[in-house]
Amino acid sequence: MKKLFVGILLVCLVLPAFGQRKAQALMAKKPLTHAAYDEWKSITFRQLTPDGKNLAYTLNPEDGDGKLVFLNLGSNQVTEVQRAVNIQLTEDSRHALFLIKAQKDSLIQLRRLKKKKEDMPKDSLGIFDFQSRQVVKIPQVKSFKIPAKSGGWMAYQSENLEAEGESEGNDTKPKKVSDDNGYPLVLINLKDRSELKFDYVKDFTFSEKGNALVFYSTGNDKGGQAGIFWHDLEEAKTSLLLEAHSKYKFKFLSLDEAGEQLAFVADMDTTKALLRQPKLMYWKKGMEAAEQIADENTAGIPENWLVSDNFRPYFSKSGERLFLGTNPPPILMDTTLLPEEMVQVEVWHWQDDYIYPEQNVRADRERKRSYLAWIDLNDRKLVQLGSPEISEIRVDEEGKAGIALGMDDRAYRMMRTWDISAYNDIYAIDLNTGTPRLIEAEIKGMPRLSPDGGYVFWYSSPDIAWYAHGLATGETVNLTEGLDVSFGNELTDVPDFPSPYGVAGWSTGEEFVLVYDRYDIWQLDPKGEKTAVRITKNGRENQRVYRYEKLDPEERMIDLSTELLLSVFEEGNKDAGFARWEKGKANPEMLVKTAHRYNLLQKAKSADVLLYSRENFQEFPDLHVADMSFGKARKVTQANPQQGNYLWGTAEIVKWNSLDNIPLEGILYKPENFDPNKKYPMVVVYYERFSNTIHQHHKPEPIRSLVHRTMYVSNDYLIFIPDIVYQTGYPGESAFNCIIPGVSHLIAQGFVDKDRVGIQGHSWSGYQTAYILTRTNMFRAAEAGAIVANMTSAYGGIRWESGLARMFQYEKAQSRLGVSLWENPLPYLENSPLFFANKIETPMLLLHNDADGAVPWYQGIEMYLAMRRLNKPTWMLNYNGEPHWPVKRENRIDFQTRMMQFFDHYLKDAPMPLWMQRGVPAIEKGMRQGLELVDDNN
């Protein structure tokens, strides 16, 4: 009994002391402010060396100079380089190469002094040796390249080096280095640091395996020839492949995988003719010079067509085929007319395939459109595959199959106005003749070729099924027929067919195609002869989502005889991790699973080392390494140690039922020093479904459009993120039915101040916010960005960024009305907050920018003018020239500042800022921001 008393006494003494220390620690922390943005770093680049012994990563602030860090994973030795960008690691794990930028502050200062471009600091080249851990710097470098699959070599171009012919003393005016003339190219052997310089180079490339360097030089003033050169890196020999005139133009130096063949496009017409006639040039090791292999007169190219100079030619993996682009002659401008003599008119035809705004967006792409052709390099026969009728042609990954996939969407383009989903007629194209054979008409889905080109396969949205068409047999098989699970999104609540969960890949030899349902991976026989097998077995039973992790970027097919790494996500508790699948095992073996979000970033190419990030609301996604079983796992970065100085928060799942009695989930973010006996202001933030993102980290940064949940909870707000489910025809009411009971549920817990609840949304959720305000006075303040106020006028609007008509959004997509305006106008009226603005009593802050390419900004104007006419407190922010949300950093900070001031005023009784009290008149724009808080006592 005495021992028990002593134990209780110790607990009574320890607990208050522990609580006191915790309280003191919290008091030492400070709330986040907008000034904290600059303290936070992001890891924007991260890569293991192929041998898995070293890690390179960057720590970059959003604004300012960052650094590149090289970490030896064995010794933990660290080397840092400031302001490094464009980082590349060599295949032999020996070197890293990168450009070093000038200090941002110095560049800004020079710009203030209006320095000319040529007087601005130039980049330097950095070469880091992983063995000596030394950095060599080369000043004033324009660009550099290394072989993709070989170490030991690099080449760079510099503005700082003197080219032959540039020196003083020449009788003629020396040739200057420039974009037109080219720049010196320096080839460096990274093993012995020997160098070789070539003058006036305009373009250069390495072969993948590092056995050759090809470049185009305009020649120098001392007899150096102009032309295309081949430098053999193994024999240290340079050969002229094609001598060039100074007015020749060359594009697309393309090498085969073996590094023994070259193709490029040449314009060798020295006249000023408007109609250019490019030639396709070809060279193979052993040939004395490059020769023309195709032009406008080549047999097989359609009459009057040209070789395209907008298509990069490429070789098949075997090197036996050369693929190229062709095109009809372009429409030429009448150069005899002055600009004021030209008629500039848009003719919008009611039967245009694409509406005119979309034509404008696509115009440059259409001018450069090429149609695929190929040349058999054994007999030089050219076969045209693509045509204006069947413009999209896809060949297998290695370019070796005898049949290609062709797609024709011409008959369905007009439908894009009201149904954006892709329809296609699909064809098998005989590579030997170019002859098409119809496989299937009116496919709603995106067909693809299997890796070796044995099958065309696609997901058909209308019947929620996967199909495969055997190109050898000509037979089409429904692969999922009779299976009692859905391979389309089970949570789809738009008035359209559900989209697929996706494809993991094809197994070796194209024996099976592996596709996903909501939880599991299925093995499907493309011939339709073998029974479908759910290889993960227990996903659906446990509400566990399995997805295949591709560890080799060059993997073409999945070897089912080996172990496979799978990602795991638990829908129930939101835990995540990784599992190992092995053929014959009952269930995948769980390797790691925690209350985090994981992102597998890389497997070292030649070592069993995994690089991944792990995060949750409190934990920044720092980098971790582990072995293939996630053993010996350890965190290897600490990007933001200063987080410990700030008040943060917690995230938890909340459950309730909608007014339609649908079970729902959401996320509630609470302050770190949360007191359940205290009443907190709360802001509701939402956009369809967010609950599965509970473990996402939100570092302080000026985000574009939504309330920053970390910033607000650090300042004693609650943030509630409810999931929304929708009923076709009632999008606004659906949001109301989901959000209102969720807020009421939290108010009933006793820690939400029911009189200090705000709501905020942008774009789709901005619309819903405006709608909800017409139905309730529950919210004391609301911010709604890029809203649709009037569905009748928005239905007939244009998404100017893409040129698409907006009709599809209402009939088939996110706006979820499911009918046209003329089939049933009532949903368009009933769901438009504009027509019920007189019922709104909540002060509202609107954001709508005048360059919004998604939601026309006149929608925001309609709402603003309605509220103004009704004399209701409303403000509207328009960041001139900005798109759907503020992009410019200063504008993002400004928006986040104003939005927080707005909510602070209404939900915390903070003083009103000047911009809310009196606005910012046009004559003050850009000079006074009105962010000062107004003291009502003065």
From TrEMBL:
GO molecular-function terms, A-Z: serine-type endopeptidase activity
Keyword Signal: yes
Any one GO biological process: proteolysis
Domain of life: Bacteria
Keyword entries, A-Z: Hydrolase, Signal
InterPro entries named in the record: 6-blade_b-propeller_TolB-like, AB_hydrolase_fold, Peptidase_S9_cat
Keyword Signal found: yes
Residue intervals of the Peptidase S9 prolyl oligopeptidase catalytic domain: 734-909
Record's signal peptide: 1-19
Ranges in a coiled coil: none
Name of this protein: Prolyl oligopeptidase family protein
